[in-house]
Amino acid sequence: MDKGIAVTGMGIISALGTSVGDNYNALISRKTGLSYPEILKTIHSKLPVGEIKFSNIELARKLNLPVSHTFTRATLLGAIAAKEAVFNALLTQDDLKVTGFISGTSLGGMDEIEKYYQEFEEKKDHRRFIQAQHPGFTTSQIASHLNLEGFVTTISTACSSSANAIMLGARMIRAGKLKRVVVGGTDCLSKFTLNGFNSLMILSEGFCKAFDDSRNGLNLGEGAAYLVLEAEDVINGKPVLGRILGYGNANDAFHQTASSEKGQGAFSAIKKALEISGLSSKNIDYINAHGTATKNNDLSESNAILRIFGKEVPDFSSTKAFTGHTLAASGALEAVFGLMALQNDYIFPNLNFGIPMKETGLKPISVLKKKKLQHILSNSFGFGGNCTSLIFSKNAE
Question: How many Å apart are CA 351 and CA 348, to the nearest integer?
């Protein structure tokens, strides 16, 4: 069986902390990152969010940027996470020059666009952010900051964006198109998203409780995460954090903002990921579920899981009650969480769960659980029915 694509580095910033270590310590301590908006100035100050408690000025200082920089918040977060990933992968400047970069985002620089939109005509200094409206500008800035000079592209498929970036990177290495690539995604909180999701009436006024029968909506979050993927012949003996063994993408095209009740897109994505991995459903030890805590998503995903696994559903949980739903970045954040789980043989808890859904009776893991893990499934599902599933495996010694 194919060994899979090696992961040699990872980096993350979320409401749980600004590094892999910070995030791991919060997860095993059951410490949520959910709070209320402080950095984002919004009328929705009573809606819980997974906010990173650093201003843009403070984030820019971490990157030693000049005052006149054009980094939006999503770019700042992405650069911090990607910088940690390449550092942990022990990449040299020569390595970076031939390394690709595939990044997912749904907002791009919308946070600066909405801030300065009314001032663009009169204040020339703010016009430097106009180009940030294009999601690809965020990607190119991060790549330039880290001197990544290989293949560079952006994926924007809503909440499956960074999972699709990871999948594309793995496919390109497997096809011999790349030797090394940094993959993941970034998104930040903004008025645009908070108002938009509120208009859909799917935001909870309390902390979200995925897969609970009384669930009533999601909490938005912000963050960024990246993995370094490498072909076997360029690893050169460095530590391998895990491997991407399978991946699948499907689009059920059921509705612009809702999943099909039977979970057709999710079912197809999971099925394809299993086929590519060469594993059977019985080989999956844990599922990091998309688990947004909306009525529609959790039922749809649960039905897809039941269709795949039948009566032998593996342990599963959603980690979104720790970070909030970080939109395009969520697949990459949860890929990092999945690799942490594999390395430490822990299943992170589904916070706030109490009562199983009456339609399925499924019970996620609600406490920190020690378990020997070999293969895990990570689900990421986006608006428009764009569904992606990734299978990560522990590195075989």
Answer: 9
What's the pLDDT score for residue 252?
80
CA–CA dist 155, 138 (Å, integer): 11
Model pLDDT for residues 268-313, shown as the tens digit of each residue: 999 999 999 999 999 999 999 999 999 999 999 999 999 999 999 9
In one-letter notation, the amino acid at residue 316 is F
Q: Is residue 344, in this structure, part of any structural domain at all?
A: yes
Please identify, among 179, 214, 234, the residue that sits at the C-terminal boundary of a domain: 234
**Residue count (the chain):** 397
Report how far residue 223's alpha carbon sits from residue 79's, in angstroms, rounded to the nearest whole number: 11
Give 92's contacts (C-beta < 8 A, 6+ positions apart): none
- 221 phi and psi angles, rounded to 5 deg: -145, 180
111-126 confidence digits (pLDDT tens): 777 776 676 677 666 6
CA separation for the pair 247, 167 (Å, rounded): 6
d(CA 206, CA 216): 9
CATH of the domain at 173: 3.40.47.10
- Domain end residue (candidates: 200, 234, 268): 234
Considering the domain architecture, whether residues 208 and 309 belong to the same structural domain is answered as no
Instruction: Point out the least confidently predicted range of 153-162, 332-341, 388-397.
Output: 388-397
Look at residue 99 and tell me if it is in a domain.
Answer: yes
CA distance linking residue 260 with residue 254, whole number of Å: 6
Q: How far is CA 258 from the centre of its chain?
A: 19
Number of domains in the chain: 2
Sorting pLDDT into bands at 50, 70 and 90, what band is 139?
very high
**Nearest-angstrom CA–CA distance, 143 and 166:** 16
H-type helices in the chain, by residue range? 20-28, 56-62, 73-88, 93-96, 110-116, 135-145, 161-174, 191-199, 264-277, 295-309, 320-323, 330-344
Q: Are residues 149 and 286 in the same domain?
A: no
Tell me the pTM: 0.96
Question: Is the CB of residue 270 less than 8 Å from the CB of residue 232?
Answer: no
For 303, list phi and psi in degrees, rounded to 5. -65, -40
Is the residue at 95 inside a domain?
yes
68 CB-near residues (< 8 Å, 6+ apart): 128
Domain span at residue 275 reads: 246-393
